[in-house]
Amino acid sequence: MNDDAFWEEVHSVARKAGRAYLATVDRGKPRVRVVFPGFEGRKLWIATKRSSTKARHIERDPNVELFWEVGPTRPTAHLTVTGVARFVDDGALKKRIWDGEFFGYSLSEFWPGGPQSSDFGLVLIVPNHIELGWQPAMWQGQKPEVWTTWSSPLNHSAGRVGMNGMTIREARVEECEQLLQLWQLVGSGPSVTDTVEHLQALARRNGDLLLVAEIAGKMVGTVLGGWDFWRGHIYRLAVHPKHRKRGIARSLVQEVERRLRNKGATRIYALTYTEEGLAFWLSSDYERTADTAFVRTY
Asked: Is CATH 3.40.50.1000 the right assignment for the domain spanning 163-282?
């Protein structure tokens, strides 16, 4: 299924289902309720009271997930959208969405005063990961179609193929020396653990968080994730100088974030060694903290 066909199917499933289940995060715990979202292209909208509980959750933690199911006859479609939510306060935009009838019900039932009502809240959700599958095929082992902000839908095997033929996959044990060479090239490190032996042990034991980006079979980027059941960590985000400004770093971050979130991370720390890395993280959704890091080397 190509990209356009995938999105057409996503819109169709969402329209048929009408309602979705929205999961927000409340102090590390999931909270679920029914909502009636509306897609507009590759983003979606939710109308809610600005004073609602879910509004407070979104303001504290913008990570959300929605689930639609279309049934009851088989095949049953399952659609899951993971993304980042934020409130839109621009009056002209709120009026455009109000007038656009995106939601399948009349907003004036809840806000008789129109889009200028003080408690009318408009939530924009930008998806970063979508899964679309059908039952009973998935029970029988068929993988769902998957889309991320940088890839077209495909099944997960060797890796994810994204823009410009880029693939993000788990590093192989035999590539560890090449990883070290890339880190040295970009000025990341070195540290006492920058050895082939350390990296090979990591690839064997925690290989799902040691990722590489490659184009035409050539390694062009890396990222290393860490999970200690308390918080997630991102280290060694590196992109070959000849392949920068192509979205590779952001694609690597999105994939390692997805994997950390799947492990349970609700807070992720990023560590950088270079001026280029500092500039990247300052331009991202990450906030600079006042934490002071200490290290002891053996």
From this structure: no
